[in-house]
């Protein structure tokens, strides 16, 4: 295929391939993050505290063995691979039709990322619900298909889309902020280095920097999303879960699971963009 043929298909394939490896590799971090966000308060040395990332990791290995760290792998791949593919193909469409090859400004980067992630996030929200419940260990679903059937039968459309609002508040701003930080950071790098043998490490470093900044801003929405998807009948809406987290955990409750999520999202996004940039060149997108 020439570089002009099927650009959206090529962008989708490049994004999907880049997402597959990072999704599998960093799934344990996502699992630990979900368990942390759902962990009850503990009483340690006369003070209230929460279970640590290491203690949850150790507990999973002891009770579920090493393979337990990849619990929820099927819905994760089902969500992330086409999701990342849709995200990158949407970005490519927006760039080619509205920016005509020019470098996007910071505001344009945020808008592009917001729109691209909103589309994929809304389409794949039922898989996100199943993924969260698999990772929590609270639900005994036999498979992803049976889980979807059970949720639809017992909870209806509301159960299939629970947590959609905080999911969009998490993913769309994250993607927009990440893309802004990523493109702006790349512009600070001299062009001779971008085109040098060090291009992959440079892309990876830019991705890590962007991921850290975007993760911190969007962490509260991730906590709210997890609570709504694990306890669909407990909360009437977004405001009720906000009040619940604040009353039970305080301000720090909105940042539970931030370390594993930051590690996963940062490394995953950095790797996805690095692989995507390389595949894009080979497929003639750049």
UniProtKB/TrEMBL annotation:
<keyword id="KW-0496">Mitochondrion</keyword>
<dbReference type="GO" id="GO:0005743">
    <property type="term" value="C:mitochondrial inner membrane"/>
</dbReference>
<keyword id="KW-0472">Membrane</keyword>
<dbReference type="InterPro" id="IPR023395">
    <property type="entry name" value="MCP_dom_sf"/>
</dbReference>
<dbReference type="GO" id="GO:0015187">
    <property type="term" value="F:glycine transmembrane transporter activity"/>
</dbReference>
<dbReference type="Pfam" id="PF00153">
    <property type="entry name" value="Mito_carr"/>
</dbReference>
<dbReference type="InterPro" id="IPR018108">
    <property type="entry name" value="MCP_transmembrane"/>
</dbReference>
<feature type="repeat" description="Solcar">
    <location>
        <begin position="6"/>
        <end position="97"/>
    </location>
</feature>
<protein>
    <recommendedName>
        <fullName>Mitochondrial glycine transporter</fullName>
    </recommendedName>
</protein>
<keyword id="KW-0812">Transmembrane</keyword>
<dbReference type="GO" id="GO:1904983">
    <property type="term" value="P:glycine import into mitochondrion"/>
</dbReference>
<keyword id="KW-0813">Transport</keyword>
<keyword id="KW-1133">Transmembrane helix</keyword>
<comment type="similarity">
    <text>Belongs to the mitochondrial carrier (TC 2.A.29) family. SLC25A38 subfamily.</text>
</comment>
<dbReference type="InterPro" id="IPR030847">
    <property type="entry name" value="Hem25/SLC25A38"/>
</dbReference>
<comment type="function">
    <text>Mitochondrial glycine transporter that imports glycine into the mitochondrial matrix. Plays an important role in providing glycine for the first enzymatic step in heme biosynthesis, the condensation of glycine with succinyl-CoA to produce 5-aminolevulinate (ALA) in the miochondrial matrix.</text>
</comment>
<feature type="repeat" description="Solcar">
    <location>
        <begin position="198"/>
        <end position="282"/>
    </location>
</feature>
<keyword id="KW-0677">Repeat</keyword>
<dbReference type="InterPro" id="IPR002067">
    <property type="entry name" value="MCP"/>
</dbReference>
<feature type="repeat" description="Solcar">
    <location>
        <begin position="104"/>
        <end position="188"/>
    </location>
</feature>
<keyword id="KW-0999">Mitochondrion inner membrane</keyword>
């Amino acid at each position: 295929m020439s570089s002009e043929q099927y650009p959206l298909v090529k962008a989708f394939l490049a994004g999907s391939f880049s997402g597959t490896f990072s999704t599998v590799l960093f799934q344990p971090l996502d699992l630990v993050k979900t368990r942390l966000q759902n962990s009850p308060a503990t009483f340690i040395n006369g003070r209230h505290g929460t279970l640590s990332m290491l203690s949850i990791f150790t507990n999973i290995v002891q009770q579920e063995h090493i393979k337990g760290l990849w619990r929820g792998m099927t819905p994760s791949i089902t969500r992330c691979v086409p999701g990342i593919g849709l995200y990158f193909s949407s970005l490519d469409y927006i760039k080619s039709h509205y920016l005509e090859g020019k470098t996007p400004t910071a505001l344009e980067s945020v808008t592009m990322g917001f729109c691209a992630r909103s589309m994929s996030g809304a389409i794949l929200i039922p898989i996100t619900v199943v993924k969260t419940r698999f990772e929590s260990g609270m639900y005994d679903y036999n498979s992803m298909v049976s889980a979807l059937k059970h949720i639809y039968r017992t909870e209806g459309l509301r159960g299939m889309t629970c947590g959609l609002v905080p999911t969009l508040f998490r993913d769309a701003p994250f993607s927009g902020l990440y893309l802004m930080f990523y493109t702006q950071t790349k512009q600070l790098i001299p062009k001779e280095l971008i085109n040098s043998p060090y291009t992959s490490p440079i892309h990876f470093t830019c991705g890590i920097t962007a991921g850290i900044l975007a993760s911190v801003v969007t962490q509260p929405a991730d906590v709210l999303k997890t609570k709504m998807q694990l306890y669909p009948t407990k909360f009437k809406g977004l405001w009720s879960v906000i009040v619940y987290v604040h009353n039970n955990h305080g301000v720090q409750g909105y940042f539970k699971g931030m370390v594993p999520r930051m590690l996963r999202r940062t490394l995953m996004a950095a790797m996805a963009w690095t692989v995507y940039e390389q595949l894009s060149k080979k497929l003639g997108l750049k």
